[in-house]
């Protein structure tokens, strides 16, 4: 529906509403104690910003570590609507049900999911609050797009309150096979929550098929291919929309003199190794950081190369630090890195440079420019945007990507050195192959991957989803971007 078709809406009501656990801004505290908001890094916001500005959009989300209640405010042409979460809800809804129940369950039970009834109650309460906020903000007939696993009940709760809306949902993480999902005591409620949407998007078509099968088995609705037929005559579509990055923004950053200089500096500070390996992850047990560092250290230990030949930079940004499994992982990695450097390092030449910190996007781009071999080895990952960011930053078409076949990105980036992260010897073999590869082979692979990432960027992703939800796209949001030279 075009915005002009709805004239009577009150001015704060929005035609397009995004609902996500987090607002797309971070609070900055200045030296004088005053605070302001800065747009968070990440493709989702930059992809949606133009369409949000055009459609008088609103974004509903949790503002982060803010304890006081906050009024809606405006930021870069977007209305931001904060939803507050109490300390107890933070523990039960966010750390508990979202990140100690759903997160491990949806990632192949890489860690054991915990099931607690009070966590579930809190998840319902917070989902209700988000649904209530969306119901208040959305204009008559608006489009509401709900994001990710923290908010799977919102589609149905919102439809109850506002049957006039068009509702989309996108799951950024994997959706597990029925055999694993069925462990969840509240499996039927989650499926029914998602079925409140008109369109349910997943990263991969396998995930959409898992969902359709579960709906048939556990809820008993009729399904055909990607459609679910509800008894009230409504139809829900479940399809794959692989998310991507703001490719042009990364290319521009990588080409900037500051980033180029910083990349050279990083290599010099590391003693100009022949080959620089790089890992960049949230410190999460799904990412396979431990296994990859072991594989790298064994290559040195076995004599394939020395610490002068190759070094590994591992950036691990702190995440969900009070959740047990994350605490355990942090200690395990600390110990492993100490062990490896103690055994294999020389003075001024550690085998692994490990940084447990977050960095701005420009520093990430410099690391991508500096690195010869990017190692992305999750045990399970919805997509993994780091893999795509690395490819976007390889302006010369060089560099190697070692990529887990269990990352969603592996479906598109077929020319990567694909690995099974459970197979340490297999991973060593692929890392060594990437280390020894000749320039011609590397360039052939990288150029093919660059074409994929150039054609399918995050704007393409957002416009494909919104088009299927019936949103008219602004002219500059074309479906298919022309391929650029890579
Ligand atoms: C994943 C999830 C996001 C989440 C992000 C960071 O990418 O799909 O929904 O926001 O991790 O995790 P955090 O718990 O810090 O929001």
CATH topology of the largest domain: Rossmann fold
Give the DSSP E fraction (strand runs of 2 or more residues).
Answer: 15-25%
Largest sheet: 10 strands, mixed
Order of strands, main sheet, comes to 5-6-4-1-7-8-9-12-11-10
- Coarse morphology: globular
Number of domains: 2
In CATH, the architecture of the largest domain is 3-Layer(aba) Sandwich
| Helical run tally | 16
Tell me the total number of β-strands: 18
What's the CATH class label of the largest domain?
Alpha Beta
Structural class: alpha/beta
* Mean pLDDT across every amino acid position: 93
Catalogue the ligands.
6-O-phosphono-alpha-D-glucopyranose
Q: What is the H level of CATH, i.e. the homologous superfamily of the largest domain?
A: Glycogen Phosphorylase B
**Helix content percent band:** 40-55%
Low-confidence stretches: 1-10, 475-486
């Amino acid at each position: 529906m075009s915005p002009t078709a709805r004239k009577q809406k009150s001015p704060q009501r929005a035609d397009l509403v995004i609902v996500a656990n987090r607002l797309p801004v971070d609070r900055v505290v200045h030296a004088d104690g005053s605070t302001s908001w800065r747009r968070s890094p990440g493709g989702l916001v930059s992809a949606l910003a133009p369409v949000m500005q055009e459609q008088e959009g609103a974004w509903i989300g949790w503002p982060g570590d803010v304890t006081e209640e906050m009024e809606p405010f405006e930021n870069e042409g977007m209305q931001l609507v904060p939803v507050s979460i109490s300390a107890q809800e933070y523990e039960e809804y966010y750390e508990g049900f979202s990140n100690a129940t759903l997160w491990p369950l949806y990632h192949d039970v890489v860690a054991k999911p915990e099931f607690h009834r009070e966590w579930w109650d809190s998840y319902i309460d917070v989902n209700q609050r988000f649904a209530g906020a969306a119901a208040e903000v959305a204009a008559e007939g608006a489009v509401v797009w709900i994001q990710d696993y923290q908010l799977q009940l919102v589609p149905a709760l919102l439809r109850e309150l506002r049957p006039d809306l068009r509702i989309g949902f996108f799951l950024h993480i994997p959706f597990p096979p029925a055999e694993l999902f069925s462990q969840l005591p509240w499996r039927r409620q989650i499926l029914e929550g998602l079925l409140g949407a008109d369109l349910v998007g997943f990263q991969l078509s396998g995930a959409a098929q898992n969902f359709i099968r579960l709906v048939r088995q556990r809820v008993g609705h009729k399904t055909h291919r990607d459609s679910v037929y509800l008894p009230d005559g409504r139809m829900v579509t479940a399809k794959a929309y692989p998310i991507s990055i703001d490719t042009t923004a990364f290319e521009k950053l990588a080409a900037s003199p500051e980033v180029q200089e910083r990349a050279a500096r990083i290599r010099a500070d590391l003693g100009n190794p022949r080959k620089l390996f790089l890992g960049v992850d949230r410190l999460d047990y799904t990412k396979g950081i431990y296994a990859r560092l072991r594989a790298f250290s064994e290559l040195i230990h076995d004599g394939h190369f020395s610490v002068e030949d190759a070094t590994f930079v591992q950036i691990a940004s702190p995440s969900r630090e009070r959740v047990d499994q994350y605490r355990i992982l942090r200690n395990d990695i600390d110990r492993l890195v100490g062990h490896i450097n103690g055994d294999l390092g020389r003075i001024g030449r550690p085998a692994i440079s490990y940084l447990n910190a977050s960095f701005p996007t420009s520093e990430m781009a410099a690391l991508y420019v500096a690195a010869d071999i990017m190692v992305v080895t999750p045990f399970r990952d919805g997509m993994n945007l780091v893999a795509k960011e690395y490819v976007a930053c390889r302006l010369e078409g060089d560099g190697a990507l070692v990529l887990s076949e269990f990352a969603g990105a592996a479906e598109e980036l077929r020319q990567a050195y694909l690995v099974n992260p459970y197979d340490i010897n297999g991973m060593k073999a692929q890392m060594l192959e990437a280390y020894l590869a000749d320039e011609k082979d590397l360039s052939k692979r990288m150029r093919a991957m660059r074409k994929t990432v150039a054609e399918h960027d995050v704007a393409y992703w957002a416009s494909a989803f919104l088009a299927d939800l019936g949103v008219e796209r602004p002219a500059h949001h074309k479906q298919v971007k022309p391929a650029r030279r890579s």
